[in-house]
Every structure is written in structure tokens, then in C-alpha cells.
Amino acid sequence: MNASRLLLLVSCLLVSAAACAQTLTCSSDDMARHFCRANTSNGVQMIHQRSGSPCTQGYSWGYDNGGIWVDHGCRADFSLGGGGSISSQEAQRSCKNTAGERLPSVPLAYISVYRGSDTGDGNYMINFHAQPPNNRVSSGFCIIAKNGQLLRFQFDPNAGPNQGGGGGSSGGNSAQDAMRSCKNTVSSRMPNVPLAYIHINQASPVAGGYMVNFQAPNLNGFCNVYRNQPVQVWSGGRKLQ
User: What is the model's pTM?
Assistant: First the structure.
């Protein structure tokens, strides 16, 4: 048995047969971003790093509906459909790296992340907070699937690099929209409290919208979030104006 057949056999013993049959190598040998077209509908998992440069999901590799991208010198073998689930720590690292890409002037050391409540469909919700010295604060959140795919990245209203956004009404009809609207509305009631210190729990469906619980310094309660209506914030049995 020649060396290449032996290497293939060993590789197949290390991963599932399905993953072995659907393995793709994607390379960023020139340190630039490259795209490898592939069917990623069943998820992607890095199974072997070939480069000396680190391959970190969300920073130097990732994927979308059209294929896999690599950057910053990453070269690795990827399993298509091998999937698996990433840990919450990996989801936080992916969100932090993505925030770093969207905020190129902010060193990663000044970007903190923490895990919020998982979304109703089983994905990770990760909050981030960037506070560089002598610069404006940015914050927001990522929604990351269990297979590692970045589903959504969004800056909080008036907290992104372009100071866009604005909150106070539901603006959408998903559980994630309701959670974000509750957080932004509570923040508007507590302007001296950073968004990172306002914790949002799972949105529970109610007639016409969602009820979202929150915890903040010296204030706990819930929001009633209805589509195209102002968010109602309740605490201690009374409605906050």
C-alpha cells in the first residue's frame, strides 16, 4: 500500500465515512482571502489544519450558502456535512473575531463578549462590547448556529461605527427582534448603564407578540413587545414610562 493510500485510510478512520467522502481543502497561501465553492447546506467542520497560521472560525475561515472562505494564511481540510456542534466558548470567539473585523480600528483586546440567552431555535446569542481607550463605545450581538455558521451580526442602535439605528419599537416579529428591542428600550430608561450589563432572557410568545424578561443593575422586570407598537417595560408591578 503506497503512502497516499495509507494517508487516505488513516484520514477515513479519524472521521466519519460521510465526512471523508466530502472533504475539501481550501487555502490562503498568500495571506489573502480566498473562496472555495461547496455545498454547505449541511454544515462545515474543519478537520485538519495544514498551515502554520492559525485557522480560527469567524476570523480566518468561515462559510456561507455558496462555499467556504479562508483568510490570513489559513490552509485546512474541511468536512462538508460532517457538522457537529460548536461550544459556547467557540461561538463567543467567533463573535469576537467578527466584531473585530467590523471594527478594524479596535484591537481585539478591547472587545469583550458574553453569552446571552440562546434563541428559541437552539442557536447561540452572543453579546459583544467594544470599549477602546479614547474612542467611542460600540456594542451589539451575534446569532451563531450550533454548526458554527454566523447567522446574524448587528450593532445596537447608536452603538455602531456609523452611529446608526434607533430603537423603542419591536421593528420585527421574530424572537430575536423582541429580545433586541427589549434590551434597547431598557437601555433608554437607564442611560448610565452600559448595554453589556443589561441581560435579556428568552422571549416567550404571547398573543400578538412576545414577553421578554430582563435583569439590569437595580432593576429587573419584563417587556411586552408587540409589532409596530412602543415596547412596554414593566418592573415591580408597574409600567415604566
Answer: 0.44
